[in-house]
Design a protein that fits this description.
Elements lengths: L6 H24 L6 H14 L3 E2 L17 E5 L2 E3 L13 E10 L2 E10 L5 H20 L6 H14 L3 E2 L5 E3 L6 E5 L16 E4 L2 E3 L6 E3 L6 E3 L5 E3 L2 E6 L2 E4 L4
Antiparallel strand pairs: 1-4, 2-4, 3-12, 4-5, 6-10, 7-8, 7-9, 9-14, 10-13, 11-12, 14-15
The structure holds magnesium ion (2 copies).
The site of one magnesium ion has 6 residues, from strand 4 and strand 5.
């Protein structure tokens, strides 16, 4: 069932979204060569707690996972696409780091992710990240009342395919609200003009995940969570939670 949000609920989600944005900015700031992923998790935990919010990911236990999630953020480095568990791994020069964070205020969740390179960047990594961000903003721009869900999926996917990147199989965006993952599922590739008609009050997390080398497949690390690219190529993941309003799409997970 798709739950449309009231203006009051969207206002609360703007608060949780702002907390998520702050936590992501702090982890980005704290991510230096030699910083451990667990330290980044602690930075995000402190920002969320100081804001009086609660972390969405900690102890989250979807049916496919072996155990409740042990972190506040996901830290996916290089060939890890998503769901990387914060570990004692220390960031090396040139690592491509993706951080995904969720937090809730009054039971309403915000969900966002960023990708960046620490230290000296390979230009191909920067291109991958820039393309993934471009796809996210193309998807946001297509998310308007009266448009179709397929317009959003198409807008995201065409950017990645035209650049020759793989699109992470079986993974995409989603509705978000009282649950972190709500209907509808938002594929990162689709047909314009098809699918659900978008309405005011719909809140979506859009999250392109692009893979260098053009392959869509992934495999699950032995930690049971981290999803890695087949072939070990690098991947980028960016995400915003947005509300569809009468004035167009509004990004909730900004500062
Ligand atoms: Mg997320
Ligand atoms: Mg999400």
């Amino acid at each position: 069932m798709i739950e449309l949000k009231t203006a009051d609920e969207v206002a609360t989600m703007r608060e949780s979204g702002r907390v998520v944005a702050k936590a992501l900015a702090a982890t980005r700031e704290g991510a230096k060569v030699g910083t451990s992923l667990r330290e980044l998790d602690q930075i995000a935990a402190a920002v969320i707690s100081d804001a009086g919010a609660k972390p969405s990911f900690l102890h989250y236990h979807p049916s496919w996972a072996p155990s409740p999630y042990p972190g506040v953020i996901c830290t996916s480095v290089n060939d890890a696409v998503v769901h990387g568990v914060p570990s004692d791994y220390r960031i090396a020069d040139g690592d491509l780091v993706s951080i995904d964070c969720g937090a809730y205020v009054d039971g309403l969740h915000g969900d966002a992710a960023i990708s960046f390179v620490v230290g000296s960047a390979d230009p191909t990594d920067l291109d991958l990240i820039a393309c993934t961000e471009r796809a996210l903003y193309a998807g946001i721009d297509a998310a308007r009342a009266g448009a179709k869900l397929g317009d959003v999926s198409y807008a995201i996917g065409v950017v990645g395919r035209e650049a020759g990147y793989g699109l992470m199989a079986d993974h995409g965006g989603h509705g978000v609200g009282r649950a972190m993952h709500e209907e509808p599922y938002v594929p990162n590739e689709g047909k314009a003009g098809k699918g659900l008609r978008l309405r005011e009050g719909l809140v979506l997390a859009l999250e392109p995940m692009f893979i260098m080398g053009g392959r869509d497949q992934y495999w699950r690390d032995e930690d049971g969570w981290t999803l890695r690219t087949v072939g070990g190529t690098r991947a980028a993941h960016v995400e915003h939670t947005i509300a569809i309003t009468g004035d167009g799409p509004v990004i909730l997970t900004e500062l």
